[in-house]
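An instance follows:
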Amino acid sequence: MSAAKADPSAAATTVATVAARVGVASSAIVGDIDPNVTGIAHDSRAVRPGNVFACLRGASFDGHDHAADAVEAGAVALLVDHRLDNVGDVAQIVVSDTRRSVGPASAAAWNDPADELLMVGITGTNGKTTTAQIVAAALEGAGVSTGIIGTLHGPRTTPEAPELHEMLAGFVAEGCRAVVMEVSSHALELHRVDGTRFDVVGFTNFGHDHLDLHGSPEAYFRAKSLLFAPAFASHAVVNVDDTHGRLLADGVAADLVVRSVRGEDLRDTVVGPSSHSYTWNERSVEVPLGGDFNVANSQMALELISCLADLDISVDIDIDDAIRGLASLAPVPGRFELIQTDETRARNFAVVVDYAHTPDGLERVLESARAITSGRVIVVFGCAGRRDKEKRPVMGELAGRLADYAVATSDNPRGEDPSAIIDDVIAGVAANYRSRVSVEPDRRLAIRQALLTASSGDTVVIAGKGHENYQDLGSVTVDFDDRDVTREELARLGPKERIS
Protein backbone atom coordinates (compact mmCIF):
# COMPACT_ATOMS: atom_id res chain seq x y z
CA MET A 1 0.00 0.00 0.00
CA SER A 2 1.42 3.39 -0.93
CA ALA A 3 0.91 6.47 1.17
CA ALA A 4 -1.71 9.00 0.26
CA LYS A 5 -0.62 12.60 -0.08
CA ALA A 6 -0.69 14.05 3.42
CA ASP A 7 -3.09 16.88 4.11
CA PRO A 8 -0.96 19.90 5.08
CA SER A 9 -3.72 21.14 7.34
CA ALA A 10 -3.19 18.04 9.47
CA ALA A 11 0.27 19.32 10.42
CA ALA A 12 -1.09 22.17 12.54
CA THR A 13 2.12 23.07 14.33
CA THR A 14 4.21 26.24 14.45
CA VAL A 15 7.78 27.28 13.80
CA ALA A 16 8.28 27.53 17.56
CA THR A 17 7.18 23.90 18.01
CA VAL A 18 9.66 22.68 15.41
CA ALA A 19 12.43 24.72 17.01
CA ALA A 20 11.66 23.34 20.44
CA ARG A 21 11.86 19.78 19.11
CA VAL A 22 15.43 20.31 17.93
CA GLY A 23 16.43 22.04 21.15
CA VAL A 24 16.40 25.66 20.02
CA ALA A 25 14.66 28.11 22.34
CA SER A 26 12.20 30.53 20.77
CA SER A 27 14.27 33.43 22.05
CA ALA A 28 17.21 32.20 19.95
CA ILE A 29 15.28 32.12 16.68
CA VAL A 30 15.82 34.84 14.15
CA GLY A 31 12.49 35.98 12.72
CA ASP A 32 8.80 35.20 13.32
CA ILE A 33 8.15 32.02 15.35
CA ASP A 34 4.35 32.05 15.11
CA PRO A 35 3.49 30.91 11.55
CA ASN A 36 1.80 27.55 11.17
CA VAL A 37 3.93 24.90 9.50
CA THR A 38 2.49 22.81 6.67
CA GLY A 39 5.40 20.38 6.35
CA ILE A 40 9.13 20.30 5.74
CA ALA A 41 11.33 19.88 2.67
CA HIS A 42 15.06 19.58 1.94
CA ASP A 43 14.81 20.21 -1.81
CA SER A 44 14.01 23.84 -2.62
CA ARG A 45 12.13 22.68 -5.74
CA ALA A 46 9.71 20.73 -3.52
CA VAL A 47 8.94 23.55 -1.09
CA ARG A 48 5.29 24.42 -0.68
CA PRO A 49 3.85 27.49 1.10
CA GLY A 50 4.13 27.10 4.86
CA ASN A 51 7.03 24.62 4.74
CA VAL A 52 10.19 24.61 6.79
CA PHE A 53 13.21 24.28 4.49
CA ALA A 54 16.03 22.14 5.88
CA CYS A 55 19.42 23.22 4.55
CA LEU A 56 21.28 19.91 4.37
CA ARG A 57 24.88 19.51 3.29
CA GLY A 58 25.90 16.73 0.89
CA ALA A 59 29.04 15.63 -0.87
CA SER A 60 28.29 17.84 -3.89
CA PHE A 61 25.69 20.33 -2.67
CA ASP A 62 24.84 22.67 0.17
CA GLY A 63 21.18 23.39 0.89
CA HIS A 64 22.09 26.77 2.33
CA ASP A 65 22.84 27.89 -1.23
CA HIS A 66 19.18 27.33 -2.11
CA ALA A 67 17.57 28.93 0.94
CA ALA A 68 16.54 32.08 -0.93
CA ASP A 69 14.77 29.96 -3.55
CA ALA A 70 12.93 28.14 -0.77
CA VAL A 71 11.79 31.41 0.78
CA GLU A 72 10.57 32.61 -2.60
CA ALA A 73 8.56 29.37 -2.91
CA GLY A 74 6.81 30.07 0.41
CA ALA A 75 9.00 28.63 3.18
CA VAL A 76 8.15 30.17 6.56
CA ALA A 77 11.31 29.00 8.30
CA LEU A 78 14.79 27.69 7.55
CA LEU A 79 16.69 25.01 9.43
CA VAL A 80 20.30 26.17 9.12
CA ASP A 81 23.71 25.61 10.70
CA HIS A 82 24.60 29.31 10.54
CA ARG A 83 22.65 32.52 10.13
CA LEU A 84 22.00 33.56 6.55
CA ASP A 85 21.92 37.18 5.38
CA ASN A 86 20.13 36.92 2.03
CA VAL A 87 16.74 35.54 3.05
CA GLY A 88 14.83 38.53 4.38
CA ASP A 89 13.10 38.28 7.75
CA VAL A 90 11.99 34.62 7.47
CA ALA A 91 12.54 32.60 10.66
CA GLN A 92 15.91 30.86 10.98
CA ILE A 93 16.30 27.90 13.35
CA VAL A 94 20.06 27.69 13.88
CA VAL A 95 21.45 24.29 14.92
CA SER A 96 24.94 22.82 15.00
CA ASP A 97 24.17 20.07 12.43
CA THR A 98 21.10 20.26 10.20
CA ARG A 99 21.34 16.59 9.21
CA ARG A 100 21.17 15.47 12.83
CA SER A 101 18.25 17.82 13.46
CA VAL A 102 16.14 17.23 10.35
CA GLY A 103 14.60 13.99 11.65
CA PRO A 104 13.10 15.41 14.84
CA ALA A 105 12.17 18.59 12.95
CA SER A 106 10.34 16.54 10.32
CA ALA A 107 8.45 14.56 12.94
CA ALA A 108 7.31 17.79 14.57
CA ALA A 109 6.46 19.47 11.25
CA TRP A 110 4.17 16.58 10.32
CA ASN A 111 2.65 16.36 13.81
CA ASP A 112 4.35 13.08 14.82
CA PRO A 113 2.54 10.65 12.51
CA ALA A 114 4.61 7.67 13.73
CA ASP A 115 2.88 8.01 17.10
CA GLU A 116 -0.43 7.19 15.40
CA LEU A 117 0.87 3.95 13.84
CA LEU A 118 2.23 0.57 14.82
CA MET A 119 5.81 0.93 13.58
CA VAL A 120 7.98 -2.03 12.55
CA GLY A 121 11.56 -1.34 11.46
CA ILE A 122 13.67 -3.99 9.70
CA THR A 123 17.39 -3.81 8.97
CA GLY A 124 20.03 -6.26 7.74
CA THR A 125 22.06 -6.85 4.60
CA ASN A 126 19.62 -9.23 2.92
CA GLY A 127 15.96 -10.08 3.39
CA LYS A 128 14.59 -6.69 4.42
CA THR A 129 12.26 -6.31 1.46
CA THR A 130 10.82 -9.82 1.57
CA THR A 131 10.43 -9.78 5.35
CA ALA A 132 8.60 -6.44 5.15
CA GLN A 133 6.22 -7.80 2.51
CA ILE A 134 5.50 -10.88 4.65
CA VAL A 135 4.87 -8.80 7.77
CA ALA A 136 2.48 -6.54 5.84
CA ALA A 137 0.55 -9.50 4.37
CA ALA A 138 0.22 -11.12 7.78
CA LEU A 139 -0.94 -7.90 9.46
CA GLU A 140 -3.48 -7.34 6.70
CA GLY A 141 -4.69 -10.91 7.30
CA ALA A 142 -5.17 -9.99 10.95
CA GLY A 143 -7.29 -7.01 9.93
CA VAL A 144 -4.60 -4.36 10.44
CA SER A 145 -4.34 -2.02 7.44
CA THR A 146 -0.61 -1.70 6.78
CA GLY A 147 1.65 0.49 4.68
CA ILE A 148 5.16 -0.36 3.53
CA ILE A 149 8.21 1.87 3.07
CA GLY A 150 11.16 0.24 1.35
CA THR A 151 13.13 -0.68 -1.74
CA LEU A 152 10.04 -1.42 -3.84
CA HIS A 153 8.29 1.81 -2.91
CA GLY A 154 10.62 4.67 -3.78
CA PRO A 155 14.02 5.76 -5.10
CA ARG A 156 15.63 5.10 -1.71
CA THR A 157 15.18 2.11 0.57
CA THR A 158 14.58 4.59 3.40
CA PRO A 159 13.59 8.12 2.37
CA GLU A 160 15.12 11.29 3.74
CA ALA A 161 13.38 12.41 6.92
CA PRO A 162 11.12 15.08 5.32
CA GLU A 163 9.73 12.58 2.78
CA LEU A 164 9.57 9.84 5.40
CA HIS A 165 7.34 11.75 7.78
CA GLU A 166 5.18 13.06 4.95
CA MET A 167 4.68 9.44 3.87
CA LEU A 168 3.80 8.44 7.43
CA ALA A 169 1.32 11.32 7.64
CA GLY A 170 -0.14 10.10 4.35
CA PHE A 171 -0.58 6.60 5.75
CA VAL A 172 -2.40 8.05 8.77
CA ALA A 173 -4.67 10.07 6.47
CA GLU A 174 -5.34 6.93 4.46
CA GLY A 175 -6.52 5.06 7.55
CA CYS A 176 -3.55 2.73 8.02
CA ARG A 177 -2.91 1.41 11.49
CA ALA A 178 0.60 0.05 10.92
CA VAL A 179 3.68 0.68 8.80
CA VAL A 180 6.52 -1.72 8.05
CA MET A 181 9.74 0.06 7.13
CA GLU A 182 13.03 -1.15 5.72
CA VAL A 183 15.78 0.76 7.51
CA SER A 184 19.02 0.92 5.54
CA SER A 185 22.51 1.48 6.91
CA HIS A 186 22.63 4.68 4.84
CA ALA A 187 19.52 5.93 6.60
CA LEU A 188 20.98 5.21 10.02
CA GLU A 189 24.37 6.71 9.20
CA LEU A 190 22.75 9.80 7.68
CA HIS A 191 20.15 10.24 10.46
CA ARG A 192 17.13 9.81 8.18
CA VAL A 193 15.13 7.96 10.84
CA ASP A 194 16.15 10.12 13.80
CA GLY A 195 12.97 11.24 15.53
CA THR A 196 11.08 8.08 14.54
CA ARG A 197 9.93 5.69 17.25
CA PHE A 198 9.31 2.00 16.45
CA ASP A 199 7.26 -0.51 18.39
CA VAL A 200 9.65 -3.29 17.37
CA VAL A 201 12.79 -3.51 15.25
CA GLY A 202 14.24 -6.58 13.52
CA PHE A 203 17.68 -7.72 12.33
CA THR A 204 17.80 -10.24 9.48
CA ASN A 205 21.50 -10.88 8.84
CA PHE A 206 24.81 -9.23 8.07
CA GLY A 207 27.09 -9.54 5.04
CA HIS A 208 29.44 -7.71 2.70
CA ASP A 209 27.89 -4.56 1.26
CA HIS A 210 28.06 -0.76 1.17
CA LEU A 211 31.75 -0.50 2.03
CA ASP A 212 31.90 2.40 -0.44
CA LEU A 213 29.99 4.42 2.18
CA HIS A 214 31.04 2.86 5.47
CA GLY A 215 34.67 2.04 4.68
CA SER A 216 34.90 -1.21 6.64
CA PRO A 217 32.68 -4.13 7.71
CA GLU A 218 33.02 -2.98 11.30
CA ALA A 219 31.70 0.49 10.49
CA TYR A 220 28.90 -1.03 8.39
CA PHE A 221 27.83 -3.23 11.31
CA ARG A 222 28.00 -0.29 13.72
CA ALA A 223 25.65 1.61 11.39
CA LYS A 224 23.17 -1.29 11.36
CA SER A 225 23.39 -1.55 15.14
CA LEU A 226 22.31 2.06 15.62
CA LEU A 227 18.67 1.02 15.19
CA PHE A 228 18.84 -1.15 18.30
CA ALA A 229 18.86 1.63 20.86
CA PRO A 230 16.25 2.93 23.31
CA ALA A 231 15.92 6.11 21.24
CA PHE A 232 14.32 4.03 18.47
CA ALA A 233 12.63 1.07 20.17
CA SER A 234 12.25 -0.94 23.34
CA HIS A 235 11.74 -4.35 21.68
CA ALA A 236 13.82 -6.17 19.09
CA VAL A 237 13.74 -9.43 17.15
CA VAL A 238 17.18 -10.69 16.11
CA ASN A 239 18.28 -13.59 13.92
CA VAL A 240 20.86 -15.26 16.16
CA ASP A 241 21.70 -17.91 13.56
CA ASP A 242 23.74 -15.06 12.09
CA THR A 243 27.08 -14.43 13.84
CA HIS A 244 26.58 -10.69 13.90
CA GLY A 245 23.02 -11.22 15.06
CA ARG A 246 24.35 -13.02 18.13
CA LEU A 247 26.78 -10.17 18.77
CA LEU A 248 23.98 -7.67 18.40
CA ALA A 249 21.59 -9.56 20.68
CA ASP A 250 24.24 -9.85 23.38
CA GLY A 251 25.22 -6.21 23.05
CA VAL A 252 21.75 -4.67 23.33
CA ALA A 253 20.20 -7.10 25.79
CA ALA A 254 20.55 -4.61 28.64
CA ASP A 255 18.77 -1.84 26.73
CA LEU A 256 16.06 -3.64 24.76
CA VAL A 257 13.79 -6.63 25.24
CA VAL A 258 15.26 -9.05 22.70
CA ARG A 259 13.46 -11.96 21.10
CA SER A 260 15.76 -14.40 19.30
CA VAL A 261 15.04 -16.15 15.99
CA ARG A 262 16.61 -19.59 15.51
CA GLY A 263 16.03 -21.94 12.63
CA GLU A 264 16.19 -24.90 15.00
CA ASP A 265 12.90 -23.74 16.53
CA LEU A 266 11.07 -24.78 13.35
CA ARG A 267 9.92 -28.33 12.57
CA ASP A 268 8.77 -30.17 9.44
CA THR A 269 10.32 -27.64 7.08
CA VAL A 270 9.63 -28.24 3.38
CA VAL A 271 10.96 -25.89 0.67
CA GLY A 272 9.95 -25.81 -2.99
CA PRO A 273 10.54 -23.45 -5.92
CA SER A 274 7.42 -21.38 -5.19
CA SER A 275 6.50 -22.08 -1.54
CA HIS A 276 7.75 -23.29 1.82
CA SER A 277 6.09 -24.63 4.96
CA TYR A 278 6.98 -25.53 8.53
CA THR A 279 5.65 -25.84 12.05
CA TRP A 280 6.20 -22.75 14.20
CA ASN A 281 5.01 -22.48 17.80
CA GLU A 282 2.84 -25.56 17.21
CA ARG A 283 1.16 -23.85 14.27
CA SER A 284 1.32 -24.99 10.65
CA VAL A 285 2.63 -22.24 8.42
CA GLU A 286 2.62 -22.16 4.62
CA VAL A 287 4.17 -19.28 2.73
CA PRO A 288 3.86 -18.90 -1.07
CA LEU A 289 7.54 -18.03 -1.53
CA GLY A 290 10.25 -20.45 -2.62
CA GLY A 291 13.90 -20.61 -1.56
CA ASP A 292 15.61 -21.79 1.61
CA PHE A 293 16.51 -18.26 2.65
CA ASN A 294 12.84 -17.27 2.67
CA VAL A 295 12.28 -19.65 5.56
CA ALA A 296 14.40 -17.34 7.73
CA ASN A 297 12.58 -14.29 6.32
CA SER A 298 9.11 -15.64 7.11
CA GLN A 299 10.17 -16.82 10.57
CA MET A 300 11.53 -13.33 11.28
CA ALA A 301 8.25 -11.83 10.07
CA LEU A 302 6.16 -14.08 12.33
CA GLU A 303 8.34 -13.30 15.35
CA LEU A 304 7.97 -9.58 14.69
CA ILE A 305 4.19 -9.95 14.56
CA SER A 306 4.19 -12.16 17.64
CA CYS A 307 6.16 -9.48 19.47
CA LEU A 308 3.61 -6.84 18.43
CA ALA A 309 0.77 -9.09 19.58
CA ASP A 310 2.37 -9.38 23.02
CA LEU A 311 2.80 -5.65 23.50
CA ASP A 312 0.33 -3.56 25.46
CA ILE A 313 -0.95 -1.68 22.44
CA SER A 314 -4.35 -0.56 21.23
CA VAL A 315 -4.43 -2.93 18.22
CA ASP A 316 -5.43 -6.56 18.73
CA ILE A 317 -3.46 -8.96 16.53
CA ASP A 318 -4.63 -12.57 16.19
CA ILE A 319 -1.65 -14.74 15.23
CA ASP A 320 -3.78 -17.40 13.56
CA ASP A 321 -5.47 -14.77 11.39
CA ALA A 322 -2.04 -13.38 10.54
CA ILE A 323 -0.82 -16.81 9.44
CA ARG A 324 -3.92 -17.33 7.30
CA GLY A 325 -3.21 -13.94 5.73
CA LEU A 326 0.03 -15.30 4.29
CA ALA A 327 -1.99 -17.27 1.73
CA SER A 328 -2.68 -13.98 -0.07
CA LEU A 329 0.99 -12.98 -0.19
CA ALA A 330 1.91 -12.12 -3.76
CA PRO A 331 5.34 -12.96 -5.19
CA VAL A 332 7.83 -10.37 -4.01
CA PRO A 333 9.07 -8.62 -7.17
CA GLY A 334 12.58 -9.73 -8.05
CA ARG A 335 13.06 -11.83 -4.93
CA PHE A 336 13.44 -15.48 -5.96
CA GLU A 337 10.71 -14.67 -8.45
CA LEU A 338 9.85 -17.71 -10.52
CA ILE A 339 9.41 -16.94 -14.23
CA GLN A 340 7.07 -19.53 -15.73
CA THR A 341 6.14 -19.60 -19.42
CA ASP A 342 5.07 -22.17 -21.99
CA GLU A 343 8.74 -22.54 -22.88
CA THR A 344 9.94 -23.31 -19.35
CA ARG A 345 7.12 -25.81 -18.86
CA ALA A 346 7.75 -27.50 -22.21
CA ARG A 347 11.49 -27.74 -21.61
CA ASN A 348 11.12 -28.55 -17.88
CA PHE A 349 13.59 -26.05 -16.48
CA ALA A 350 13.10 -23.27 -13.94
CA VAL A 351 14.07 -19.61 -14.20
CA VAL A 352 14.41 -17.43 -11.12
CA VAL A 353 15.07 -13.67 -11.02
CA ASP A 354 16.59 -12.40 -7.79
CA TYR A 355 17.97 -9.09 -6.50
CA ALA A 356 21.07 -10.84 -5.10
CA HIS A 357 23.79 -8.22 -5.54
CA THR A 358 25.95 -8.97 -2.51
CA PRO A 359 28.20 -11.97 -1.85
CA ASP A 360 25.88 -13.26 0.88
CA GLY A 361 22.84 -12.69 -1.31
CA LEU A 362 24.36 -14.53 -4.26
CA GLU A 363 25.47 -17.39 -2.04
CA ARG A 364 22.00 -17.74 -0.51
CA VAL A 365 20.17 -17.71 -3.83
CA LEU A 366 22.53 -20.22 -5.44
CA GLU A 367 22.31 -22.57 -2.48
CA SER A 368 18.52 -22.25 -2.51
CA ALA A 369 18.47 -22.98 -6.24
CA ARG A 370 20.67 -26.02 -5.67
CA ALA A 371 18.25 -27.37 -3.08
CA ILE A 372 15.35 -27.45 -5.55
CA THR A 373 17.29 -28.51 -8.66
CA SER A 374 17.77 -32.02 -9.99
CA GLY A 375 19.99 -30.86 -12.84
CA ARG A 376 22.40 -27.96 -13.17
CA VAL A 377 22.36 -24.50 -11.58
CA ILE A 378 23.12 -21.78 -14.15
CA VAL A 379 23.60 -18.17 -13.12
CA VAL A 380 23.80 -14.80 -14.85
CA PHE A 381 25.38 -12.21 -12.57
CA GLY A 382 27.41 -9.01 -12.46
CA CYS A 383 28.49 -6.17 -10.19
CA ALA A 384 27.52 -2.50 -10.23
CA GLY A 385 29.89 0.29 -11.18
CA ARG A 386 30.93 3.16 -8.90
CA ARG A 387 30.31 0.97 -5.87
CA ASP A 388 32.23 -1.26 -3.46
CA LYS A 389 34.92 -2.90 -5.62
CA GLU A 390 36.03 -5.33 -2.93
CA LYS A 391 33.00 -7.55 -3.38
CA ARG A 392 33.58 -8.10 -7.12
CA PRO A 393 36.14 -10.95 -6.91
CA VAL A 394 34.17 -12.46 -4.03
CA MET A 395 31.08 -12.62 -6.25
CA GLY A 396 33.17 -14.24 -8.98
CA GLU A 397 34.53 -16.85 -6.60
CA LEU A 398 31.04 -17.73 -5.37
CA ALA A 399 29.52 -18.00 -8.85
CA GLY A 400 32.36 -20.17 -10.10
CA ARG A 401 32.20 -22.49 -7.14
CA LEU A 402 28.46 -22.74 -6.51
CA ALA A 403 27.04 -22.76 -10.05
CA ASP A 404 27.57 -25.40 -12.70
CA TYR A 405 27.73 -22.69 -15.33
CA ALA A 406 27.95 -18.91 -14.91
CA VAL A 407 27.76 -15.96 -17.27
CA ALA A 408 29.44 -12.80 -15.99
CA THR A 409 27.79 -9.71 -17.44
CA SER A 410 27.09 -6.03 -16.91
CA ASP A 411 24.84 -4.84 -14.07
CA ASN A 412 24.49 -1.06 -13.61
CA PRO A 413 27.92 0.18 -14.73
CA ARG A 414 27.08 3.82 -13.93
CA GLY A 415 29.70 5.08 -16.38
CA GLU A 416 32.45 2.66 -15.36
CA ASP A 417 33.81 0.39 -18.10
CA PRO A 418 31.71 -2.82 -17.94
CA SER A 419 34.64 -4.91 -19.17
CA ALA A 420 36.84 -3.60 -16.37
CA ILE A 421 34.17 -4.47 -13.82
CA ILE A 422 33.87 -7.98 -15.25
CA ASP A 423 37.67 -8.36 -15.15
CA ASP A 424 37.55 -7.58 -11.42
CA VAL A 425 34.84 -10.23 -11.03
CA ILE A 426 36.66 -12.90 -13.03
CA ALA A 427 39.85 -12.30 -11.04
CA GLY A 428 38.17 -13.97 -8.09
CA VAL A 429 37.24 -17.21 -9.90
CA ALA A 430 39.46 -20.07 -8.81
CA ALA A 431 41.52 -21.61 -11.61
CA ASN A 432 39.79 -24.98 -11.32
CA TYR A 433 36.40 -23.30 -11.90
CA ARG A 434 37.37 -20.97 -14.78
CA SER A 435 35.93 -23.35 -17.37
CA ARG A 436 32.49 -22.91 -15.78
CA VAL A 437 32.43 -19.12 -16.24
CA SER A 438 31.96 -17.26 -19.50
CA VAL A 439 31.83 -13.53 -20.19
CA GLU A 440 29.12 -11.64 -22.09
CA PRO A 441 29.00 -7.88 -21.30
CA ASP A 442 25.63 -7.41 -23.06
CA ARG A 443 23.13 -8.35 -20.36
CA ARG A 444 20.39 -9.40 -22.79
CA LEU A 445 22.79 -11.66 -24.67
CA ALA A 446 24.03 -13.09 -21.37
CA ILE A 447 20.47 -14.01 -20.38
CA ARG A 448 19.89 -15.52 -23.82
CA GLN A 449 23.09 -17.55 -23.50
CA ALA A 450 22.04 -18.95 -20.12
CA LEU A 451 18.59 -19.92 -21.40
CA LEU A 452 20.05 -21.58 -24.48
CA THR A 453 22.30 -23.62 -22.21
CA ALA A 454 19.49 -24.83 -19.93
CA SER A 455 17.95 -28.27 -20.28
CA SER A 456 15.46 -30.45 -18.41
CA GLY A 457 15.89 -30.32 -14.64
CA ASP A 458 18.08 -27.18 -14.64
CA THR A 459 17.51 -23.91 -12.80
CA VAL A 460 18.62 -20.60 -14.32
CA VAL A 461 19.19 -17.77 -11.83
CA ILE A 462 19.25 -14.20 -13.18
CA ALA A 463 20.89 -12.33 -10.30
CA GLY A 464 21.62 -8.75 -9.37
CA LYS A 465 18.86 -6.43 -10.51
CA GLY A 466 15.68 -8.12 -9.38
CA HIS A 467 12.76 -5.69 -9.51
CA GLU A 468 14.70 -2.89 -11.22
CA ASN A 469 13.27 -1.84 -14.58
CA TYR A 470 16.28 0.07 -15.82
CA GLN A 471 20.01 -0.22 -16.47
CA ASP A 472 22.15 2.72 -15.42
CA LEU A 473 24.91 3.08 -18.02
CA GLY A 474 26.20 6.35 -16.58
CA SER A 475 25.62 8.69 -19.51
CA VAL A 476 22.11 7.33 -19.98
CA THR A 477 19.59 5.13 -18.20
CA VAL A 478 17.81 2.62 -20.43
CA ASP A 479 14.74 0.47 -19.90
CA PHE A 480 15.77 -3.00 -18.79
CA ASP A 481 13.82 -5.42 -16.60
CA ASP A 482 15.39 -8.86 -16.14
CA ARG A 483 11.94 -10.41 -15.87
CA ASP A 484 10.64 -8.91 -19.10
CA VAL A 485 13.86 -9.62 -20.98
CA THR A 486 13.83 -13.21 -19.74
CA ARG A 487 10.25 -13.71 -20.97
CA GLU A 488 11.14 -12.17 -24.33
CA GLU A 489 14.17 -14.41 -24.74
CA LEU A 490 12.19 -17.47 -23.68
CA ALA A 491 9.62 -16.65 -26.34
CA ARG A 492 12.41 -16.43 -28.90
CA LEU A 493 13.63 -19.81 -27.75
CA GLY A 494 10.25 -21.35 -28.52
CA PRO A 495 8.66 -24.38 -26.90
CA LYS A 496 10.13 -26.95 -29.29
CA GLU A 497 13.43 -26.07 -30.89
CA ARG A 498 16.47 -24.15 -29.74
CA ILE A 499 17.34 -21.05 -31.69
CA SER A 500 20.82 -20.36 -33.01
